[in-house]
Amino acid sequence: MTDEFNDNVMIEGFDPSKMVEQEQDHTLENWKEIYAAYQNSKILYAPIAGIEKIGQPGEEKHPCAVVRVGSIRGLIPLEYTGAQNLRQLRSMTGQNVAFMVLNYDQDNELFTASRTQAREKLAAITLRKLQVGDVTPAVIRHVDEGYLLTDIGGIHVVIPIDDIRYGWIDNLHDEFQEGQAIKVKVMAIDEEQQHVDVSAKALLQNPWPDCVKRYQKNGEYVGTVSGVREYGVFVRLEPGVDSLSSHLKFQNVQKDDQVLVRVDNVDVEKEQIRTRITYVL
Q1: Are 168 and 226 a contacting pair, CB within 8 Å?
Q2: Quick check: 234 and 183 in contact, CB under 8 A?
Q3: Whole-number Å distance between alpha carbons of 3 and 246
Q4: Which residue from 93, 96, 104 is spatially nearest to 37, judged by alpha carbons?
Q5: Residue whose C-alpha is closest to residue 260's, from 230, 231, 240, 233
Q6: What Cα–Cα distance (Å) separates residue 49 from each residue in 54, 98, 164?
Q7: What is the pLDDT along the chain (281 residues), one digit of tens a residue?
Q8: Cis preceding-peptide flag for 57 (omega within 30 of 0)
Q9: pTM score
Q10: How many CA atoms are closer than 13 Å to the CA of 256, on its beta-carbon side?
Q11: What does the alpha-carbon distance between residue 127 and residue 200 come to, in Å, rounded to a whole number?
Q12: Could you please report the per-residue DSSP string of the chain?
């Protein structure tokens, strides 16, 4: 910045090192990027910045996702977003999405795009590269009560709660958020159906049956309440090892309470430990 000015600048109080960096207009470069993406079927990425309803005067207006390349506005019609309805589209706002440019209108500083077309291209590339046994990142798109909906390169993959990690998981929403990424192992691939099975649990060491030698029947051990259900209380004895205890008769416990439990039964085959809470710390 200071190289633009020589020592002949004679302004009282002028300090080149304090020159404010002014924002440059990159519109031309942004349009070059859009043209190149359109001409070469290139995939671009940007967050969904908003939702607009577009339509001709007198006609029904349809919702579109708004993305931006610099200051240039792009519209992705609902049917090309992959969302089934407006509610789903709203849940996608703020998320980074892939899209391909379908058309452009430089006079109105606008382009139209398709996320579904970009995902089809990504899925084809992913299926060519992916092999059973590979470890890949999976981006969480939705957190449900019993599963995570993830993306591994244009392919939606559901990870059931039992395939996430060992031990009791009380609430997936407490541990995972949309936009996070987790490492998963590819377990099976069906190229014809574009279906992939993955597991995050498969990358972790199973604490069973090694943990059995650390817990004796009638022994008492300190644990942390990891969940409370109507049928009993889950108590974490160590990472990946949770026991199931019956409710106390005269006292209620809550998640994260420390308790002392007595081991009633250990079932190695089912990887289960049944305990009884003897004391609340």
Answers
A1: yes
A2: no
A3: 76
A4: 104
A5: 233
A6: 16, 13, 31
A7: 445 555 666 676 667 777 766 555 568 899 999 999 999 999 999 999 999 999 888 788 899 999 999 989 999 999 999 999 999 999 899 989 999 999 999 999 999 999 999 999 999 999 999 999 999 999 998 899 999 999 999 999 999 999 999 999 999 999 999 889 999 999 999 988 889 999 999 999 999 999 999 999 999 999 999 999 999 999 999 999 999 999 999 999 999 999 999 999 999 999 999 999 999 99
A8: no
A9: 0.78
A10: 1
A11: 19
A12: -GGGS-TT---TT--GGG---PPP--HHHHHHHHHHHHHTT--EEEE--EEEEE--TTS--EEEEEEEETTEEEEEEGGGTT-SSHHHHHHHTTSEEEEEEEEEETTTTEEEEEHHHHHHHHHHHHHHH--TT-EEEEEEEEE-SSEEEEESSS-EEEEEGGGT-SS--S-HHHH--TT-EEEEEEEEEETTTTEEEEESGGGSPP-TTGGGGG--TT-EEEEEEEEEETTEEEEEEETTEEEEEPPPSS----TT-EEEEEEEEEETTTTEEEEEEEEE-
State how far the Cα of 138 lies from the Cα of 180, in Å rounded to an integer: 8
CA dist., res. 138 & res. 166, Å (int): 18
Tokens of 178: 């949309």
Q: Given the structure tokens 């995570």, which residue do they identify?
A: 148
Sequence-distant (6+) residues with CB within 8 A of 98 are 43, 44, 45, 115, 118, 119, 122, 154
